[in-house]
Amino acid sequence: MTTVLAAAGLGKRFGKRWALRDCTFDVPERRVVGLVGPNGAGKSTLLHIAVGLLTPSDGRISVLGEPPGGNPAQLGRVGFVAQQNPLYPSLTVADHLRLGAWLNPTWDAELAARRTAELGLDPKQRAGKLSGGQHAQLALTLAIAKRPRLLVLDEPVASLDPLARHEFLRQLMAAVAEDEMTVILSSHLVADLERVCDYLIVLAEARVALAGDVDELLASHWRLTGPRRDPADLPAEQHVIEASHTDRQSTLFIRSDGPILDPAWTVEPVGLESLVLAYMRRADPAGPGRRPRLGVAR
Amino acid sequence: MIRLSLRQFRAQAWVAIGLLLLTAALLASTGPHLAHLYGAYAKAQAACAASSDCGDVNISIGKLDELLKLIGTALVAVPGLIGAFWGAPLISRELEHGTHRLAWTQSVSRTRWLAVKLALVGAASVAATGLLSLMVTWWSSPMDHADMNRFGAGLFGERNLTPLGYAAFGFALGVTAGLLIRRTLPAMATTLAVFLGGRLTFTYFVRQHLLAPAHLTTPLGSVVQGFGQDNNGPPNLFAGANLPGAWVYSTRIVDGSGRGLTSQVVASSCPALLNPPPGNPGPSAGRAVAVPDGDARDALQACVTKLSSAYHGVVTYQPSSRYWILQWYETGIFVAAAAGLAAVCFYVIRHRAG
Fold it and tell me: I need a surface site. Which of A84, B146, B241, B334 has the fewest CB within 10 A?
């Protein structure tokens, strides 16, 4: 397995605040990686470091074997669509395709032309006048047509309506299927990622709470329901992620690589969303339920 | 990268080209007439100087020419406006729209991105201002020649080379402000304010120290221009230098040991000046230099003759031959400041932002 991105002890500080801290994980090749976490967890910071827009304050990161953003060739191997899919509002669709060709020696003009035609984008239309969905698709086209080995998308569908969201992800998957690309895309909604990702990284409170293959994660996490008991009594290979108790009953959310043999438990598989939420809650320093979910914006 | 920068600069470039063409048309159509007018004026002045019964010759130019003179004055503002409208948005607009994240993740290094933008739009700024300066200098040359005041605080910065230096500085200032402030409007306002402050400070406090002035010692007779009171101060002799085209800092009347001429000395040496014979108005108040007539003129003459053994005039000035040295000097300083600001931009874009 080749590693596309390797982070070790990665951290980024803005003033006194750590936006990202002590992140260690690897992204294997040819995967679609979902980066999920609540707003402010450090997703954008991590992605900006990966594409070379930010330099880390701490630790090391290597992308395709090199430090990110170090030289034009390295920049060319990584495609990036930033949050809100920024484009030049006064430049036309055709201008943007020209821009891509001027700035990238690896530009695939044929691919760009074909994609814009398929999307029904008018070359003379200014980017500022495009609909949200078209805007996002054009930004994606720019990133894909430079034929990157790693494609990084920061909240690509956050601003889209459900229909455009679906269409965007469909197009993305079609492009991935054609190419030998690794994709990292972030979202604060697990539902967006569930359909497309086969690898998951959960960021919470500036740290990596979970990273792994989606199938493996789903195959190793269980919800156990049974008579009330102390979670400390569980076999050593069963790790409790979350526990809740009523007077008579315990519900445990556990990770276990082996089978669960205790007949007292009712064993259920868990969905990706509840899995992610459990890890996020565990990472919350204020503890589950103790932190107000709604705050007053000042 | 060059083609992208050109594409992004296209609209602004067309506006500048349009304005330059309009200015060129206006100045080219009125320039020859103005030159003709001033030619006639020079001839009339020469004739007046030769004749004995001619006081002075006046010239009046048309309303349109008066209006066009304002283009020269506007040249003061052009580098500041370039800084605000070309410099400040250059990076801050990208930062505001987030498009820097698009630009900086293409296969072009950030340093090269900045270098191309700075070079291209910076060159356009200097070229546009240079062309305007060339036109204005050409158009107003007959006027400037007649006024002999090209070192004037305003005029020095509105002709020839200096506007080019200001343009480079204004542009670099705008880019730097945009990069540091990261928002277009505040960056534009800051650029205008800092540019104005820098220009005024340089004009009124720095320029006179660029070169050590020359000193000219002359006989008293050649510097005394009249007698009177300066703002109700004690009556004294007025001194002034007649050095065509020079930048005169001061003209003083001093004795052998460098002490200035006091009104007491004048009063005791030349009582006739202070007590004019009846029928002749005394010294007038205010700075208006009296060019006295008749008896008063004789009295002044006598006074100068009497004092000239002990006193002489000292003129501190920049000779007119230093005009171009000063032009190059000032331009060079502003270009160097622009280069310094550009270096700041490169540093910031490499180490911060994102």
Answer: B146
